[in-house]
Design goal:
The chain is mostly helical. It has one domain. 64% of the residues lie in helices and 0% in strands. α1 runs parallel beside α3. The longest helix is centred in the first third of the chain and has 40 residues. The chain is globular and about 50 Å long. It starts with a helix and ends with a helix.
């Protein structure tokens, strides 16, 4: 191949990629609009996870509008994003009101993360290093959800030592730095360090925050690649998206693979706009094993709807798709 032809092919490849980016954004925006319609129809019943997922999405969209303010972008897409932000602001306010009534104790403990300035999104990007991933994973139950919540409330200042934030107990320190954890235990370890960053906690443990994030996200990438190899089994999809959401928010851009985005978009229920159980055929095609696995690891405040929609599944989906949109903008 001549050097001139090589340069021509590179040029064509780049121009093809650029032409595809508006289509990528349009596909994501369409999915997010459908998901917002679902939230509008269920705002009285969704749980804190769902409110948080849509709140993170709102933050991503506002960040996109800031990035677009000094650049020439599609006026139609900008108008779409502005309209979506307005809708989200209204429905999140209503959902938050009902959440405070339906689950007051849990709401009070995590109310700070629903504040307008809590979430900060990446401006610089990193890549995972596969050499840092665990060679083998230990138990999936390194920590319970109750302990995870407790450690997070200590950071937020809403736990037993109410009013004093950034508390790091020896139990939390040991659990959140334990190596070899997998699945939701691993993602919650990362979430803990994300919270510490966002709260500005200065305990000496957090001087090594990036060290742990590098290890956790390298291992979470390994898990996601295995989930992909296994054909994106339904019982793994929620974890798959949560890994993308948290590591993407931590600045690891290699989680935003277009082929993963394409897969996630196919998981949305076309009529309802939510994410959850694929179809009635699932019971017959996948058998009971996947369903039992799903129920074993389901969040204790999860809200499942009669149509197969899942609050947690939808929350991580919109948070993940918001990250994809933010990255590809």
């Amino acid at each position: 191949m001549s050097y001139t032809l090589f340069l021509l092919l590179i040029s064509l490849s780049k121009s093809s990629l650029l032409r595809s980016e508006p289509d990528v954004r349009s596909s994501i925006l369409l999915a997010l609009e459908k998901a917002t319609v679902f939230m509008e129809s269920q705002y009285q019943d969704i749980n804190l996870d769902a409110v948080l997922g849509f709140h993170i999405l709102q933050g991503y969209l506002e960040g996109i509008l800031e990035k677009w303010s000094s650049e020439h972008q599609s006026l139609a897409q900008r108008a779409q994003v502005e309209s979506l932000v307005r809708k989200l602001s209204s429905v999140i306010e209503k959902a938050t009101h009902f959440l405070a009534q339906n689950d007051p104790k849990y709401f009070k403990e995590f109310e700070p993360i629903l504040g307008p300035d809590f979430w900060v999104f990446p401006r610089l990007w990193n890549q995972t290093d596969s050499l840092l991933a665990y060679s083998a994973f230990g138990g999936t139950k390194c920590l319970t959800e109750e302990i995870s919540d407790l450690c997070l409330t200590y950071l937020l200042g809403t736990g037993k030592e109410s009013g004093k934030s950034c508390i790091v107990t020896s139990t939390c320190r040991n659990i959140m730095t334990k190596l070899g954890c997998s699945d939701y235990s691993l993602s919650h370890q990362l979430f803990y360090f994300m919270f510490a960053d966002l709260k500005g906690c200065s305990d000496h443990l957090f001087l090594r925050a990036q060290y742990y994030k590098n290890i956790f996200c390298a291992s979470m990438m390994k898990i996601n690649l295995e989930i992909e190899t296994n054909g994106f089994q339904f019982s793994s999809r929620d974890l798959f998206m949560e890994n993308i959401m948290f590591c993407g928010m931590s600045g690891f851009s290699d989680f935003y693979k277009l082929r993963w985005l394409e897969a996630i978009l196919t998981w949305q229920k076309a009529n309802e706009g939510c994410f959850g159980k694929p179809s009635k055929d699932f019971e017959h095609t996948s058998g009971g094993t996947d369903q039992k696995h799903l129920l074993r690891r389901i969040k204790r405040r999860e809200k499942l709807f009669a149509d197969g929609c899942s609050s947690h599944n939808t929350a991580v989906a919109v948070g993940t798709l918001g990250g994809f949109l933010y990255y590809y903008c």
